[in-house]
Write a structure and sequence with these properties.
Order of helices and strands of chain B: HHHHHHEEEHHHHEHHHH
Shape of chain A: globular
Distance between the termini of chain B: 8 Å
Shape of chain B: globular
Radius of gyration of chain B: 19 Å
Number of domains of chain B: 1
Strand order of the largest sheet of chain A: 6-7-8-3-9-10
Number of domains of chain A: 2
Structural class of chain B: mainly alpha
Helix content of chain A: 25-40%
Oligomer: heterodimer
Distance between the termini of chain A: 38 Å
Number of strands of chain A: 10
Number of helices of chain B: 14
Largest interface: A-B, 31 and 21 residues
Structural class of chain A: alpha/beta
Number of strands of chain B: 4
Helix content of chain B: over 70%
CATH class of the largest domain in chain A: Alpha Beta
Order of helices and strands of chain A: EEEHEEHEHHHEHEHEEHH
Largest sheet of chain A: 6 strands, mixed
Strand order of the largest sheet of chain B: 1-4
CATH architecture of the largest domain in chain A: 3-Layer(aba) Sandwich
């Protein structure tokens, strides 16, 4: 099977800092991949290079067989690479409905979906349990609901690859359980790449885990392999799992 | 807010137009003339509002788009002897073309830099008008004769210097632009513009080419402002360089802020308010600008979102 996304020698330097340093990475269609690693390991920079928010210093990104290294972010979104932000960035002054209407009308304009804006929006809101809050301003939603709205916006883009940057940050335990089942459901039609600090979430969700350290891939494997990896334990897991 | 009550929204806008129509028959001559002027200039404010209110781009150079329409139409009549409709189209085309060029250059910047760049271009435009005084009349301006301001429709002449024809022409332009603005802000395009104002980076990550959308908004805004300028030249017969000065870049900002940025009817209310406060106070005292200034400060203190913006925030959430 051909990978959905690959990177070759992908690097990004900020001055002397090698935030991402020659990363070779491959993601298979349909998998749920988690990226873990200590703070400053380059995880967010790496996914920003994938989504096109940041340009690489060198290396290349290939999505579905096409070189997208030089493609601006908005065009990658149209190809099906969706990114949800680490810091919640819903449109606070717009209603939940309008927040989701933006990605829905995008896919309609691109001809990737058909139908009415309204029905597409309500479907995405229902999937995330926000349908009864369609008319509420996003800024007035609770934090957990704002995170869900962010996911609803990602979903409404009909992504082939959904990149979630620390999606459970700030969620209550009860909300996390819902979130896990939501990501599983998303993964039925899309490939999911998530950065996550919450290890129980990672262990439950991920098919495979990639561990970053100092801008490089330290290890990659199934949750069991990563748990057993002594290098990973030293660099990262050791700190939290004693 | 959106889709909540389209019927109520359209009823309100049609109601305002009907009210303005009726006013033609009850207003005394002086106020009839003033209202015609206010409606023509409210179009300028609506064009400005599209960019400032909805996209959040603060330009300090919109006098150049207004005067591109003013001169585009005025010079076509004055030097080329064009008829009124062709001259109007020429004015709008000049404004749209200028907006396209200025947009391509100025949109490389944002925030304060965008304000300064647009202001600089407007000053260049102003100085060019003075420099080419042989054609533009320089700081004296040009007067367009009454004979040039008559439209023949099906044999019947419409004299734009006639108060009622002038009022109705201004109202027609105002109504069209009001309904166009309403349609735009309720459209998918309008939703994208507001999204850019709220968070441009996020909008890009939803698949939107924000630069292209902003450029389209600049061109639409420039064309509407030019329509106002062209109408002004043809209705009031005067084409002058003072309309290209920085004062006329700041006025639409004031009108929109007073009436309520990002409200469809705010530009009309702001223009109306400013004109009448100036008109009434100047009847009492020569220090009327002081009173206008105090009124502005009070408004900003108690209605920071403008008259209509504050009404929407407090009472009428459904206003577009």
């Amino acid at each position: 099977m051909m990978p959905l996304l690959t990177t070759k020698g992908l690097s990004r330097h900020f001055g002397g800092l090698r935030a991402v340093d020659g990363v070779d990475f491959a993601l298979m269609p349909g998998e749920i991949r988690a990226i873990i690693g200590p703070n400053g390991a380059g995880k967010t920079t790496f996914v920003s290079l994938l989504s096109g928010r940041i340009r690489p210093s060198s290396g290349m990104v290939v999505f579905d067989g096409a070189d997208i290294t030089a493609m601006p972010a908005y065009k990658r979104v149209r190809l099906g690479v969706a990114y949800t932000f680490q810091i919640t960035s819903v449109f606070a002054n717009l209603t939940a409905f309008d927040n989701v209407a933006l990605p829905v009308q995008r896919t309609l304009t691109d001809g990737r979906t058909r139908g009415q804006v309204r029905s597409g929006v309500m479907a995405a809101l229902e999937r995330t349990g926000l349908a009864d809050r369609a008319g509420t301003l996003a800024g007035q939603l609770s934090y957990g609901h704002q995170r869900l709205l962010e996911v609803a916006m990602g979903l409404a883009l009909k992504p082939r690859l959904l990149i979630l940057d620390e999606p459970t940050q700030g969620l209550a335990d009860s909300e996390i359980d819902n979130f896990i089942s939501l990501v599983r459901e998303i993964a039925r039609d899309a490939t999911v790449l998530l950065i996550e600090h919450n290890m129980p979430v990672v262990m439950q969700l991920a098919d495979r885990i990639t561990v970053f350290n100092s801008g490089k891939i330290l290890a990659e494997g199934t949750p069991e392999q990563i748990r057993a990896n002594t290098q990973v334990q030293d660099a990262y897991l050791g700190a939290t799992h004693g | 807010m959106r889709d909540a009550s389209p019927a109520k929204t359209y009823a309100l806008h049609v109601g305002v137009i009907a009210l303005l129509f009726a006013l033609n028959f009850v207003l005394p001559d002086y106020h009839q003339g003033l209202f015609a002027r206010i409606m023509a200039l409210a179009v300028f404010a609506m064009g400005y509002n599209l960019l400032f209110g909805y996209v959040g781009l603060l330009s300090l150079g919109h006098a150049m788009f207004f005067s591109a329409g003013l001169y585009g139409a005025g010079l076509a009549v004055y030097h080329l002897g064009w008829g009124v409709p062709a001259a109007f189209v020429a004015g709008v085309a000049c404004g749209a073309l200028l907006a396209l060029v200025i947009g391509l250059l100025a949109l490389r910047t944002s925030g304060v830099a965008f304000m300064i760049v647009t202001m600089m271009f407007a000053q260049v435009f102003y100085l060019l008008i003075l420099y080419f005084a042989a054609w533009t009349g320089g700081d004296q301006g040009l007067v367009i004769q009454q004979a040039s301001r008559v439209i023949a429709i099906g044999g019947a002449p419409f004299d734009l210097t006639d108060p009622t024809v002038r009022y109705m022409s201004a109202l027609a332009l105002f109504s069209i632009i009001l309904l166009v603005t309403l349609a735009v802000v309720r459209s998918r395009f309008g939703r994208v513009l507001v999204a850019i104002r709220e968070n441009e980076e996020r909008t890009k990550m939803l698949g939107y080419d924000t630069l292209a959308n902003k450029l389209a908004a600049v061109v639409a805004s420039g064309a509407i402002c030019a329509a106002s300028g062209a109408a002004y030249a043809l209705l009031f017969g005067y084409v002058g360089s003072s309309f290209a000065s920085v004062q006329y870049s700041i006025l639409p900002l004031l009108w929109v802020l007073l009436g309520g940025a990002a409200t469809t009817l705010g530009p009309l209310i702001g223009t109306l308010f400013m004109y009448y406060v100036t008109d009434i106070t100047s009847g009492f005292t020569s220090a009327y600008l002081l009173i206008v200034g105090v009124a502005l400060i009070l408004l900003v203190l108690f209605f920071p979102k403008g008259i209509l913006g504050s009404i929407r925030e407090r009472w009428l959430r459904w206003l577009p």
